[in-house]
Design goal:
Blueprint lengths: L1 H21 L7 E13 L15 E13 L4 E23 L4 E24 L5 E24 L7 E4 L9 E15 L2 E12 L15 E13 L1
Antiparallel strand pairs: 1-2, 1-9, 2-3, 3-4, 4-5, 5-6, 5-7, 7-8, 8-9
Amino acid sequence: MKTQLVNALLGSAFTVASLFVSSSSFAQVQVGFRGGANWSTVSEPSLLKNLPVQPELSPGPAGAIFLDIPLSNRVSFRPEVGYVQKGFVLREGTSLDLGIIDIPIGARVAYQTQSIQTGLLIKANLTDGPVQPYVFGGPAVGYSFDGRIRTRATALFTTQNMDVDLDFGNTLNPWDISAVGGLGLSAEMGAGKFFVEARYDYGLTRQLQVPLVNLPVRNRSVGVSVGYAFTL
């Protein structure tokens, strides 16, 4: 079932892209790839703000392949399909006073999801020339195909990670609709363009579905990546 949903998500993205390609000059279409890091957390509902432990940023990998389809001299349509790790980290700590030494004791709990994400973005170059700053934005749809809770305890030494697989279903929502926005800088290099960019992903979908409890827990993340694009 998960494989069918992921395939459907990928197929929809490429179908939309092909419609734009058919109405554009194919010789100007670029294909590219990017890779980098993503730092994610979740929104904090007012019900949970007074808890002693608050969610922190969780680092993870991210990457995508995309098409850059010109709509005008400076504006293009950029559909992309990628992988991203999202989640958050909780840290709890105390100390054990032995009289002559104070031993810190704590735990790190990381909630991590592995997701396929499809973005339908509009990109606008701010200048002409070999070096071009640009902005981009648009909607994205993600599907979490795997996830885990990773726990690690610390004292005089750090224990090995203990993983528990997440079961997406009635409580955890595998789908995530979000708004993506960012900026970048590209430079001509060889047959294509090298670029670096930063983005912000604002989740719109509630990730927890707890009966009788309204918890608007939504994903939030920032990412940086580098990549290369070339004309087909």
